[in-house]
């Protein structure tokens, strides 16, 4: 109740920007967080900038895990935040040391004025480079100011020397050596000027031998943590930001790269700080088995790396191609070096019959395993069901791997091993018919920890769907069920055993009321009292990560 009241009051405060000068200097530090959240939620970039510029805490965290209530960040608010952090470097009120932007980005190209992962990466890298340029401009102004001050001191010393000469420096001394007073004054003047010159060089940094060293040792004022999205267009910007030594230091939590070469990925990994990198996601890059084996030793140098995702990376393995066996062996050894790996995603890599070689070398059991479009063979599934990973799995995705009577025993054994830990399961597009589903329903029912179940694009009839929902309502933790459209909802002409591609492309029968299917399934929910279970056939908007 108190938290809601504070949030409502914060929205009213940030709504009127003209009043900010009157309250900004008097706000307690514990209210900065709700005010900033209200400014983001209300889309108030000016308020975001003013709050961030004088942030009173050492850490500023914006973003976080995705929830049902979370909204994509407003582009203007994010840009105002980044600009304010740079301005805050010279603000005595700001004590910021860590800016955490991990999880801030929304979907690239999404609706509204949101900032996607690629745009945020470019903006953050630009901020890092601009901060270094700002420091150089400040140093130049300070240097000009120092040079003017020392020039004034030199002119004053010259005037004093001229006055001393006019007073008459030809006074004989007791030793008979004339002009001794003038010589002594001249030596003194030279000594003072020499010391001034040395001091001037030290303060303005004009000594050529020390310029590069000062740039390299520039003090880091704020560490910036973010998830980076790198492709051919943002590659150079990211490289410059990672090699820039300035008041802002860029760090990466999750790295996503798309459509760049193995050599570019290798260069990027060599530039990243070793601590803090948790995951690497490589997509649409022609790595090949040999290319991935080349990258894995670099990945092993990141001690906290626990997630590796490879999507459409062209790892097509063929035994008849020379050197493939050795490359696969190197790949297995490289995976074995990833000591903290807990998540492995391999999408459309075409490695049939090689699952044992890949997974048996991993030192720790995987918690998340995603193997869609992998053309898994019966021997692959048999190994997986008996592997040391089975009992530790929390998420399992076997979508678009064809299942039949020969693979069904392995799937049932796998579900039995993972029954106490499995929370998210996807078997979409696996060719499950009513008869195959009927054999799997008891295994589904044993997975008491299951929170989401995805079975889209399977050729099920309305009777099979009703059996599925009746089983689902008995799972106490299940919150989402993605079901396929029943065969009765499609136009005539569909094959008896259609593939997932045919189910995706085949038009639905407009004469059939789709709401009738939804009503029948929802009636089962009402009869069982399971109002907390969401049933959906919307494959595009389904997101298991929204399940608490």
TrEMBL record:
Location of region: Disordered: 135-212
Q: Where is the composition biased (Basic and acidic residues)?
A: 140-162, 187-206
GO cellular component terms given for this protein: cytoplasm
Q: Which Gene3D superfamilies match?
A: Ribonuclease Inhibitor (3.80.10.10)
**Chief location bin:** cytoplasm
Supply the alphabetized keyword list: Cytoplasm, Leucine-rich repeat, Repeat
Where in the cell?
Answer: Cytoplasm
Instruction: Spell out the family assignment given in the record's similarity comment.
Output: Belongs to the PRAME family. LRRC14 subfamily.
Instruction: Tell me the protein's name.
Output: Leucine-rich repeat-containing protein 14B
């Amino acid at each position: 109740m108190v938290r809601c009241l504070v949030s409502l009051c914060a929205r009213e405060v940030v709504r009127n920007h003209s009043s900010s000068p009157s309250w900004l200097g008097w706000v307690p530090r514990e209210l900065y967080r709700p005010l900033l959240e209200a400014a983001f939620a209300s889309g108030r970039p000016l308020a975001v900038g003013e709050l961030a510029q004088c942030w009173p805490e050492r850490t500023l965290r914006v973003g976080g895990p995705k929830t049902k209530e979370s909204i994509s960040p407003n582009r203007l608010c994010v840009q105002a935040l980044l600009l304010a952090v740079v301005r805050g470097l010279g603000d005595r009120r700001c004590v910021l040391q860590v800016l955490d932007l991990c999880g801030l980005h929304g979907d690239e190209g999404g609706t509204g004025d949101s900032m996607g992962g690629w745009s945020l990466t470019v903006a953050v890298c630009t901020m890092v480079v601009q901060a270094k340029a700002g420091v150089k401009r400040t140093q130049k102004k300070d240097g000009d100011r120092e040079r003017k001050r020392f020039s004034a001191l030199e002119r004053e010393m010259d005037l004093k020397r001229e006055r001393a000469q006019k007073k008459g420096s030809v006074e004989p001394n007791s030793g008979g050596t004339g002009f001794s007073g003038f010589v002594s004054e001249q030596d003194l003047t030279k000594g003072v000027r020499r010391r001034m010159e040395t001091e001037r060089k030290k303060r303005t940094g004009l000594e050529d031998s020390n310029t590069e060293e000062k740039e390299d040792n520039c003090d880091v004022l704020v560490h910036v943590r973010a998830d980076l999205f790198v492709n051919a267009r943002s590659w150079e910007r990211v490289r410059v930001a990672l090699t820039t030594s300035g008041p802002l230091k860029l760090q990466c939590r999750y790295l996503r790269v798309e459509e760049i070469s193995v050599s570019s990925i290798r260069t990027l990994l060599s530039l990243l700080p070793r601590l803090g990198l948790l995951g690497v996601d490589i997509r649409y890059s022609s790595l090949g088995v040999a290319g991935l084996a080349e990258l894995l030793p670099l990945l092993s140098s990141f001690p906290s790396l626990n997630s590796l995702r490879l999507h459409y990376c062209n790892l097509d393995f063929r035994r008849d191609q020379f050197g493939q066996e050795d490359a696969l062996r190197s790949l297995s050894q490289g995976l074995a070096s990833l000591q903290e790996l807990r998540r492995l995603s391999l999408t459309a890599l075409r490695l049939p019959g090689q699952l044992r070689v890949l997974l048996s070398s991993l030192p720790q059991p995987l918690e998340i395993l995603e193997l869609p479009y992998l053309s898994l063979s019966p021997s692959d599934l048999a190994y997986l069901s008996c592997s040391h990973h089975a009992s530790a799995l929390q998420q399992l995705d076997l979508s678009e791997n064809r299942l039949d009577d020969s693979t069904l025993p392995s799937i049932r054994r796998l579900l039995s091993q993972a029954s106490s830990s499995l929370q998210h399961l996807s078997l979409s597009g696996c060719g499950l018919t009513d008869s195959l589903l009927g054999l799997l329903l008891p295994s589904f029912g044993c997975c008491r920890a299951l929170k989401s179940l995805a079975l889209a694009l399977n050729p099920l009839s309305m009777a099979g769907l009703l059996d599925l929902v009746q089983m689902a309502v008995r799972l106490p933790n299940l919150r989402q069920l993605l079901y396929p459209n029943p065969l009765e909802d499609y136009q005539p002409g569909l094959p008896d055993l259609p593939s997932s591609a045919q189910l995706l492309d085949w038009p639905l029968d407009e004469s059939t009321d789709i709401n009738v299917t939804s009503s029948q399934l929802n009636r089962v929910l009402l009869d069982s009292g399971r109002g907390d279970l969401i049933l959906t056939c919307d494959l595009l908007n389904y997101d298991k990560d929204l399940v608490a």
